[in-house]
Specification:
The protein has one domain: PH-domain like (Roll). The chain has a four-stranded antiparallel sheet. The protein contains three helices and seven strands. By secondary structure, the protein is an alpha+beta fold.
Length: 144
Amino acid sequence: MQPTDFILPLVGIILVVTLVWLAGGRRSIRLDRMMVEQALRADGHVPATITVADDGKAAMAWLEDRSALAVVRAMGDHAAITVPGPDDIRGIAIDGEPPRLQVRFRSYGQPPFAITLTDPETLDRWRKVLMLYGEMAARKETSS
């Protein structure tokens, strides 16, 4: 093996990484209220309330048609929508400055969801909604 045998694969890897970077491979959309509403409606949901994170990376919505929570994440050029059931939420936490509401799910396949909200009223409203959502799951478990 020649000392220069590794150079050609190394150049190829550098070229691929550079092309992906130039093409915007790490680019992610910035969510806004209209985009979230359009994505939810395209998915067949009717949103009653939509809150978009201050950084535009995440959003939460209450779905009128299902009486359920929708979690929306910016994933590349798309908005990824998840509608967890009440029993899918393991816990919530508020930490940091500005305040960040974090929702942890029971499924390990579903990563924690974090949304930054600087408005204290909005943060408190969603905290209460998520706590009630968790209570719905507890009632469901006890009635089973």
